[in-house]
Amino acid sequence: MFRLGTTSYIVxxxxxxxxRYLAGRVQDxxxxxxxxxxxxxxxxxxxxxxxxxxxxxxxxxxxxxxxxLDIRLGPDGEDEHISLVKARTxxxxxxxxxxxxxxxxxxxxxxxxxxxxxxxxxRREEKWLAHALRALELLAGWAGxxxxxxxxxxxxxxxDFVGPVLERAPVSRCVDVGHLWLDGHDPAPHLRxxxxxxxxxxxxxxxxxxxxxPRRDHQSLAHTPPEQLDPVxxxxxxxxxxxxxxxxxxxEADFHSSLTALQQSLIQVNQPPxxxxxxxxxx
Length: 283
Prior knowledge:
By secondary structure, the chain is an alpha/beta fold. It is 38% helix and 16% strand. The protein contains 9 helices and 10 strands. It has an 8-stranded parallel barrel with strand order 1-2-3-4-5-6-7-10, surrounded by 5 helices. It has a two-stranded antiparallel ribbon with strand order 8-9. Strand 2, helix 2 and strand 3 form a beta-alpha-beta unit. Helix 3 runs parallel beside helix 4 and helix 8 crosses helix 9. It is globular.
């Protein structure tokens, strides 16, 4: 059975307060970390990490860590890109928590614009792949192995965007079902293919936050119709997924309503199939 998790932004307080609140309600907390240039930062200091570790030991709560920036090398392949600098800082700070996984995005913006007509076909893809593999090699060395790195699919990119990376690096997966829904994809085939390497699955609903605006992700699962949610949970149950299932929402209201939607869906998924009852007169 999967380990149920959610984010470190459920109650309006620090990481430790969220961990104390969530312990007993979920089994994993995803640390959502940021460090803005000349702005606020919630990177935990050593005392905060020790407090999180103590909460984990006392309650069985585990942690996943979401790296703060989309990962890439510098334009000329430099290892010192800010995304890697901050990733190493986070990994070093949280190493004592023995995270279940480090969730990360690969920066693929260089692949999105059409290539110049004079550029050799495939050249940008080759360069991007080489840079991505080098960045993952660095991260794996800091994190304690490739399997600790869970690459997440992103909205606005093809679902198989990271396929070439997965063929060459023994990394894990983070399947974000909400991103697939947002882009209009059926998550089932992508989830089924990724599950053998998936350490984390993200679930969140889609909803407009104001009249006339497009739907946004990371909303309560209560907005997700059962005909969308039930097949995802049925697949996880059928495949005996034992990783972390993170309700990637923010705030108490969305957390509790998402829990309710999840529980209702699990009841439907786990119901035994109905047997047809035939009357004697019909026999």
